[in-house]
Specification:
single chain; about 800 residues; alpha/beta
Length: about 800
């Protein structure tokens, strides 16, 4: 530490009034815009060479995101992006007038996506607006709502050591700005894993309903904010977004055109945004810089220092127009020159050691190597993640605080890390993901594994909130450490938490991770039992994520059946008697979708025989439903109705609604919409429509997405058969809207069949759910319904030709 530091501190203390803090220029640079300051100007201080610029700290600034703390001097001036900024500003003008806009900002790593959004915020700093900024993370791609939760925690001002009561109070203060109703506040508090201390109403919701209501609450909050002031909403690095957050963004996009919101989504080229083509969507791809812009960037980084022309040309050629490469290589040259300056005889003569690294990776490694002990701190931080809190870093590093702080100061000064917050709540952020990658890449395998093991152990033992709320993060570190039992355990905890939040895509990934870890463990009876339970649960989850006939679902089901057979051969009985039934049902459903009639009847018979042997209600109820559908689709509607009726007598909502996740849809809703087909076929259209109404009511009350969409999808055919085309159009429109949010497997297959039959039934009628008649549809789906409809409509002679057209279309490639 320089000898002048204690003297400087004493002199600054002398300038400060009681209860006042005075800082020098170096400290001001470190804290960025975290505090509002009063400039005292340059002051002569006794014992300190030269005047010192001093400032009085007045109050904390309003920091909405981690990047808001970057001071202007910490960012290289934006070069070569004037047209893009002007275009986005025009979209902002539209958003302010109530015409919401979406800007899709694409570009390769280091091209300047984040820098462009920062420039936009600078341009809008004097305009009234609400800023919402979200950051996706490669460590949290299967953490449901991670960027949204993180943004709300930052906006609320949560700190690591806040008590639950304090966090709830801070959340209430934030939500008061958007006049959030108590029911929505309860949902958002639960999203943040905060317990209800009685201040919010108690909501009796199952996981699917809670998920649905939470997404609706997030949309409602944005709408309320947009009514007060225009909203600038930025989602960064969406190529790393988790599926539930992507659904939330999709809901926002659907509502955007009537809101005063400019939504900017940044991503790398490998991400394919599903919103291109809408009239309020603008897609921008950032290109590399030309030689003139590269030269301007180099000059701004160099400042008033000279750079030999040969070195300048070397930078231009090797950076290939990528702004981050230009900045980092120029800084690497600057740092190399400053270190060798003492050995040079003349400052004007460049050192022979002054050479440009051959790649960005090499330049970053060169810069890290010059930092001495700070390199190890960068390595530890890179293993934790792109963003990491000081308390966790300190616990993992086990260094004296002074030494750790000195290393962090060097990394910040070098521009490799950004710092936000004040002790003890400081967090650090690597300037770019590529900087983190470079630091992480310097770790050898064994030290890297040991480091991940230490991080995981410390998270588990000292950071209970992280372990409880982000078990997938702990699981990831144990996986990287090669500690398989621990990794499998935490992946299992993570998937259970995702299921509780109805985050099914994330849960499927976590199931897969847990099973992969189990494969490496020694085989035991307990392990086989746990593997079987997880494998069947994976199948049930894939039903909802991929569809029953998807390759991944069928492969998972085959694996589960193999595990069941192995357990039976060893004389091991599964704890859950429904496991085998779940797998048989998955095979039956895959055959239903492909309409293999003989297999349908065979599997339904096998299922029902086994259920009757066991004698428990759930398998019997499902077995009768399966047999009813198999008989209906193979030409025996009267017998099918008997099985449906029998299944309904068994159903008890209090006992059986909870198993909807295991059998794709709620059992009663499924029985009702399937029975409606047979009732129409048997000549009871009024009864068929009554079943449709009951099925829709059940689906609405349950709030289970798969049940809702499955019911809407299947009742459409009954409505068409009964001639209620307007209601069919309305239900199809609802299904289309849900399909955009959920991306269900049936909207790509059955939907063409629905469209075909609506057009076939009323070719001159205009339907809201369909594109213009001139637009060509894909072929109708080939599944259990096609032969069923063939038998239903074959009696009226005039329909034979139309049915033949459907049959032929369904067999064309």
């Amino acid at each position: 530490m320089p000898l002048t530091t204690p003297n400087l501190a004493a002199r600054l203390q002398g300038l400060a009034e009681p209860n006042e803090v005075v800082i020098a220029e170096n400290t001001r640079k470190l804290i960025g815009h975290l505090f509002e300051l009063e400039d005292l100007g340059a002051t002569d201080l006794k014992g300190i060479p030269g005047p010192v610029r001093c400032s009085v700290v007045q109050r904390p600034a309003s920091v909405e995101s981690r990047f808001d703390a970057f001071h202007t001097g910490g960012l290289t001036e934006l070069v070569g992006r004037e047209e893009e900024v002007e275009l986005i500003l025009r979209r902002w003008s539209k958003a302010k007038s109530g015409e919401g806009q979406l800007v899709l900002l694409s570009g390769e790593p280091g091209i300047g996506k984040s820098r462009l959004t920062a420039a936009l915020m600078e341009r809008l700093s004097n305009e009234p607006n609400t800023r919402l900024r979200y950051f996706c993370s490669p460590q949290h791609t299967d953490s449901a709502l991670y960027p949204i939760i993180s943004q709300m925690e930052r906006a609320s001002g949560f700190t690591h050591d806040d008590a639950t009561q304090a966090k709830l109070d801070k959340l209430d203060a934030l939500l008061a700005k958007s006049l959030t109703p108590p029911q929505d506040a309860a949902l958002l508090a639960d999203m943040l894993s905060l317990p209800n201390d009685g201040r919010y109403p108690t909501l009796a919701l199952d996981p699917p309903q809670r998920r649905q209501k939470t997404l609706e609450a997030l949309t409602a909050q944005l709408e309320a904010l947009a009514q007060a002031t225009p909203v600038l909403m930025i989602f960064e690095d969406v190529h790393w977004i988790d599926p539930t957050s992507l659904e939330a963004v999709g809901r926002t996009v659907d509502r955007l055109k009537t809101l005063g919101v400019l939504l900017i989504v940044t991503y790398r080229p490998e991400f394919e945004p599903p919103w291109i083509g809408r009239p309020y969507v603008t897609a921008l791809t950032l290109n590399r810089l030309g030689e003139r812009e590269i030269t301007a960037m180099i000059d701004r980084v160099m400042g008033n220092k000279a750079l030999p022309e040969s070195i300048r040309q070397d930078i231009i050629e090797r950076t290939d127009g990528v702004p981050l490469f230009v900045e980092e290589m120029t800084k690497a040259v600057l740092e190399a020159e400053s270190e060798g300056e003492a050995q040079r005889t003349t400052a004007a003569v460049p050192s022979p050691a002054l050479a440009v690294p051959a790649s960005l990776h090499a330049s970053l490694l060169a810069r890290l190597d010059r930092l001495g002990p700070a390199k190890e701190v960068a390595q530890i931080g890179s293993a934790i993640g792109r963003e990491f809190p000081h308390p966790l870093l300190a616990a993992v590093a086990s260094k004296p605080e002074a030494a750790l702080q000195s290393s962090l100061d060097r990394l910040v000064k070098a521009g490799l890390l950004f710092r936000q917050g004040m002790s003890p709540h400081v967090t650090y952020l690597f300037k770019h993901a590529l900087v983190q990658d470079a630091a992480y890449g310097t770790l050898l395998r064994d030290p890297r594994r040991a480091l991940h093991a230490r991080i995981a152990e410390i998270l588990e033992t000292r950071f209970a909130d992280v372990t409880a709320n982000q078990p997938e993060l702990v699981a990831r570190h144990y996986t990287e450490a090669g500690l398989t039992p621990k990794a499998a355990s935490f992946w299992g905890t993570a998937r259970q938490r995702s299921l509780e939040r109805s985050a099914l895509v994330e849960a499927a990934e976590q199931f897969t991770r847990a099973l992969e870890q189990m494969e490496a463990l020694p085989a035991t009876s307990l392990l086989r039992r746990e593997q079987l339970k997880l494998q069947v649960a994976l199948v049930n989850t894939l039903f909802h994520v991929k569809g029953a006939a998807a390759r991944e679902t069928k492969a998972a089901a085959e694996k589960a059946r193999l595990l069941i057979d192995q357990a039976e051969a060893l004389g091991e009985t599964p704890e859950d008697p429904l496991l085998l039934f779940s797998i048989l049902y998955s095979f039956w459903l895959a055959n239903y979708v492909a309409f293999k009639g003989d297999a349908l009847l065979e599997l339904a018979t096998q299922f029902l025989t086994l259920a009757e042997k066991q004698g428990t209600p759930v398998p019997l109820m499902i077995g009768h439903r399966m047999m009813g559908s198999a008989l209906a689709c193979t030409g025996s509607p009267a017998q099918a109705r008997e099985h449906y009726d029998w299944a309904l007598t068994i159903y008890d909502p209090a006992l059986h609604r909870a198993i909807a996740m295991r059998f794709q849809t709620d059992i009663r809703a499924g029985i009702l919409f399937f029975r409606s087909w047979t009732l129409w076929l048997l000549g009871y259209p009024e009864a068929a429509l009554a079943d449709v109404a009951r099925a829709l009511t059940d689906a609405h009350e349950l709030g289970h997405a798969s049940t809702t969409m499955g019911t809407l999808n299947n009742v459409l055919f009954t409505l068409i058969f009964c001639g209620d085309y307007a209601d069919a159009d309305e239900k199809a429109t609802q299904l289309t809207a849900l399909g955009r949010e959920k991306g269900p497997f049936w909207t790509t297959a059955d939907w063409h069949t629905v469209a075909y039959w609506l057009r076939l039934a009323r070719p001159q009628m205009q339907f809201k759910c369909l594109p213009p008649p001139s637009q060509r549809f894909g072929r109708p789906a080939q599944h259990g319904l096609c032969p069923f409809v063939w038998r239903v409509w074959r009696r009226p002679t005039q329909n034979w030709a139309s049915l033949r057209r459907l049959r032929v279309a369904s067999t064309k490639p």
